[in-house]
Amino acid sequence: MMRSLLFVPGDSRRKLEKALASGADALLIDLEDSVALDAKENARQVTAAFVAEMKNVTDRPLLYVRVNGLTTGLIEADLDTVMPSGPDGIVLPKAVGGVDVSHLGAKLAVREAESGLPDGATRILAIATENAAGIFAIGTFTGASHRLMGLAWGGEDLSADLGAETNRHDDGLYTDPYRIARAFTLFGAAAAAVDAIDSVYTNFRDHDSLRAECLASRRDGFVAKMAIHPAQIPIINEAFTPSVEAIARAQGVVDAFNANPGAGVVGVEGEMLDRPHLLRAERLLGRNLK
Questions:
Q1: Helix, strand, or coil here: 90?
Q2: Which pLDDT tens digit goes with each residue over 10-26?
Q3: pTM of the predicted structure, to 2 decimals
């Protein structure tokens, strides 16, 4: 189950090693925003060596690499360096719809073949709301690539693209443009049948607000959250781990429909449930098995 995804700068071997013990389900090894331009090549080499060393280690987090965007002129070198190591996935920043995911998928297919990796082994996580163009294209990810496993959203780059003074109110809640971006990410992920992954919470010392944001995200349909600090991981994991009661409830719904294969509505614990409830239960049980 992928609940927590921790960003780690790709140019720091020390931070990468420390992140292994964070409890995160996935490390998002960053070659983009957290790495200065003159440090990009060193970050590529450090990242490639780390992924290669960890590739066959059991009981490790998934290793995804956030490359530089398709329009930066840097992505080719990123992929040429890290793909031979066989990362579990690539994070595509500033994605503008399914066309960008398809474009990246083609690049990955070539490099998998060149590196002797299984075709399709490298998954794609697209960050879909980091610019205004991405917002308008968020409904186009359906069928873009069999590699696409999730859509995430980001409010920090989006605020820069919009020229906003801030993306949150004084009480910490998002302002309207970012609430819309968040909601659109849920819709886009559901339409594409992939995971919806919530944005980072930048105040890594405010654990109470992080917990509240995680619970609200889970309530609305997000299944995981990105993080910028190891201290956030236990809170995120707890919030996005289905409870024993929730799992039992979901299994009861599935069992009730299995016992009545022709029924459109079944009764479970005194409540009448229909097919959307079955789909929700199946998704929860499916995430619990990943």
A1: strand
A2: 999 999 999 999 999 99
A3: 0.90
